[in-house]
Amino acid sequence: MSDGHDRRINPIKRLHFEKLSPLCPVCRTAGRESPLKIGAVLKEGKDTITEGVLVCSNSSCLSEYPVLDGIPILVANLRTYIAQNFLPILCRDDLSETMESLLGDCFGPGSAFDSQRQYLSTYAFDHYGDLDPEEPAPSSAPPGSVLNLLREGLQVAGHAQRGPVIDIGCAVGRTSFELGKALDEIVLGIDLNFGMLKTAAAILEKGCLSYPRRRGGIAFERRRFPVSFDKAEKVDFWVCDATALPFAEGTFSAGVSLNVLDCVWSPYDYLREISRILMPGGNAVLSTPYDWTANATPVEAWLGGHSQRSEHKGSSPDVLRSLLSGGLHPHAVEALELISEKDVPWTLRLHDRSIMEYLVHLMVIRKKHGE
Ligand SMILES: C[S@@+](CC[C@H](N)C(=O)[O-])C[C@H]1O[C@@H](n2cnc3c(N)ncnc32)[C@H](O)[C@@H]1O
Description:
Number of strands: 13
Largest sheet: 11 strands, mixed
Structural class: alpha/beta
Shape: globular
Order of helices and strands: HHEEEEHHHHHEHEHEEEEHEHEE
Bound molecules: S-adenosylmethionine
Strand content: 25-35%
CATH class: Alpha Beta
Oligomer: single chain
């Protein structure tokens, strides 16, 4: 919650780098565990690096990873990532609303610029709309839907053990800030969308949220308001791939990953990675609407949603339950067990006259001891 106090902190925090000891993503794909070290600090604040280079410590690799706007980009295929994300990486955020709207009209609907503004509009509204003084009185689709999922999940998951917490697919970061506040642990929010993480990191840097709120079509209004959170110094945001996390086994005491399972290209690798990076006994809160699309996940990798003539009749929750029950499924994740599950509504605002309502499968899972 915003408490009106000014606590500005610049990412990337050396605290997170030291405690989480990230591994080189390139070496990880080759089956090696090589810690990253700080290669160059180009711009820094107190205990933070705003621009710099992280380097693989393995002398036969020496891969470099940039820290941009305080956000380290730790993915194995860096060249592809940078090429595909040049817009949010290089995009300026100092334009007036008039110029932004003129450029938006030129880029047009369906452009990368338009898609990025739509994502920011939808997720920044849901994550922070409750703190926006300009937001109209509660509507039929008020913001804070994801916070409700987090609350429901944490009620069951509790805080079983101490240690760093990961928020996988954190988008613009509200759930990471709430975790920092509720658990008083080091929290790392990770996502692949640089523009969304830049919005989250700007809250750390400037104590302010700025986002384009879609009215309709390609008409957006820029919203800017102060936002600050207790324990924000415990939170940081990194670009990492949920299906190939650059951390050693058992790094995190707990995890949260809301509405991400149906967005990754390999839900199997995603579940395996959650199982790998959790400490034994560690809980994770997961939710998903199973809103499969072939753009995000190849049909062969969907959990259910196809092959309705099979044992599970195409039911996604049944396939997921079977993966987590250590059964005969070839992709069973033996080390994880399902602790609780329920269906909870999750609502997203698309524009002034459109909302999307899901019923998500909210689960608490646990990494078994001795696995
Ligand atoms: C549907 S959004 C959910 C965001 C947020 N957790 C929430 O519920 O409001 C899915 C998020 O997962 C991220 N994502 C998709 N694939 C990913 C991957 N392989 N690694 C990390 N994040 C990923 C997207 O960029 C997006 O921010």
